[in-house]
Amino acid sequence: MEVLLRRAVKQRELELNYQPIVDLGSGDIFAYEALTRGPANTALESPATLFAIADEVDLTVELDRACFRGALRSALTLEPVHRLFVNLLPMSFYDASFIEVEVGNLLAAAGLTPANIVFEITERLAIENFASFKRSLAAYTAMGFGVAIDDVGTRHSNLET
After folding, report:
1. Which pairing describes strands 29-37 and 15-22: parallel, antiparallel, or unpaired?
2. Given the DSSP bridges, would you call strands 146-150 and 15-22 parallel, antiparallel or unpaired?
3. Is the pLDDT of residue 13 over 80?
4. Which residues contact 41 (CB under 8 A, 6 or more apart)?
5. Which has the higher per-residue pLDDT, 82 or 85?
6. Is the pLDDT of residue 130 over 70?
7. Which residues lie below 8 Å from residue 26, measured CB to CB, with a gap of 6+?
8. Cβ atoms within 10 Å, residue 142
9. Domain 2-150 carries which CATH code?
10. Helix, strand or coil for residue 43?
11. Which of 8, 57, 83, 117 can bridge 2 by disulfide, Cβ–Cβ 3.0-4.6 Å?
């Protein structure tokens, strides 16, 4: 399965789905959440299996970034473009070169601004460097990105004040 995973990441074979996020008061769609699946009709189609295998073969960060890139590349398929919630591991979140350079280029190519993007920091892995996390949080919110915590309480309830 490692070979299948490496190929899926390298050749952009990951499947992206967009789940609408609806305002319960008005019934209007105000955002979408980008959800990634492995290649259809394979053992990696399940996100649980996809990420478990990535963890086993040390491809978690590479898969995380491939999912993020794919979500931004295909965001223009959403009509109209609302806010896009994209899952991101803590270590990708506080990697300034990834966010500022690569994400900046992807946003420009997709015709999006930071105001369109909400980073959903997943609790799948612990936030190990709170100082870096706090600096990144301040920097990205100042740039206009939204930030949310995803899956609170499912793994690492490690939020500090």
Report:
1. antiparallel
2. unpaired
3. yes
4. none
5. 85
6. yes
7. none
8. 9
9. 3.20.20.450
10. coil
11. 57
Cα–Cα distance, 11 to 35 (Å, whole number):
18
Task: Give the 3-state secondary structure percentages of the chain, helix then strand then coil, rounded to 5.
Answer: 45, 20, 35
Cβ–Cβ < 8 Å for 154, 123: yes
pLDDT of residue 153: 46
Cα end-to-end distance, the chain, whole Å: 40
Helix (H, G, I), strand (E, B) or coil at 21: strand
What angle, 0 to 180 degrees and rounded to 10, lies between the N-to-C axes of helices 60-73 and 47-56?
140
Q: What's 47-101 look like in SS3?
A: HHHHHHHHHHCCCHHHHHHHHHHHHHHCHHHCCCCCEEEEEECHHHHCCHHHHHH
For 152, the 3-state DSSP assignment is coil
Asked if the model's pLDDT at residue 161 lies above 60, the reply is: no
Where exactly are the structural domains of the chain? 2-150
81's tokens: 């473009």
**Residue 152 confidence (pLDDT) above 60:** no
SS3 at position 11: coil
- The residue written with tokens 């390298």 in the block is 10
